[in-house]
Known about the structure:
By secondary structure, the chain is of the alpha/beta class. Helix content is 44%, strand content 12%. The chain has helices spanning 14-25, 64-70, 86-91, 131-139, 149-174, 186-191, 199-208, 210-229, 233-245, and strands spanning 6-10, 29-33, 47-48, 57-60, 78-80, 96-97, 99-101, 124-126, 144-146.
Amino acid sequence: MTRQPRALIAGLGAIGASIGMALRARGWYILYFDRHEFAGTRDAADARGTFDDPVDLTILATPENVALELLPHTRGLVTSVCSVMAPLRRAAAGDFVAGHPMTGTEQSGIEAASRELFANAPSWFIDRRSEVVERMIEDCGARPELVDAAEHDRAVALVSHLPQLLSTALASYLDDRRDALRFSAGGLRTFLRLAGMGVEMWAPILAENRDNIAPHTDAVMQIVREMLERDPSPHFTRAQHLYRSLPK
């Protein structure tokens, strides 16, 4: 593309608006499609658009269930930034790249957007190569990485979706036991950070990836029972080893 590239972003939440901000800073012309009216788009877009507008790329930045509804109405090259990839890959009939940037925040909405959100992101996964999509990713400050969609969904079930489930479940349990909170310290808030995420985003993820998540919930609960009923030392040793190996 030697001329100014054009993209349509469907969904100006935290992720979609952050993409718009980053791309506009790199010279892209950004249209947006959203069910909400905005008093201002915080520099995330140039104008409202439709799926009939001529663009180089359409970016589906909505919850998974909405992206699946919108996909048949798109045209041309389309990519997604949803937390699961395989359902969209199965539904796609046209020129489509399933994608997922490995970054985010527990905050939601356009107010949580930042043009720096993707800077130095560890990976922005895509399930097939596309020059336009990869340029978009690099212009956002991230690094594209090729992955099989089904492999991606199996992996994020363990390292992303299960942590969300556990954090939300404990917070829900504590909501009826608030007297205990006066005994809590900073560690609890750290563990519950993900509990600030909203159901609008996460209910579709849990529904679409349930089969990949469920076996891990059973396995983790088995470890919890073992730590209560037997010597917990082996699990603490393995946990510390894993924690120390995580990138800073």
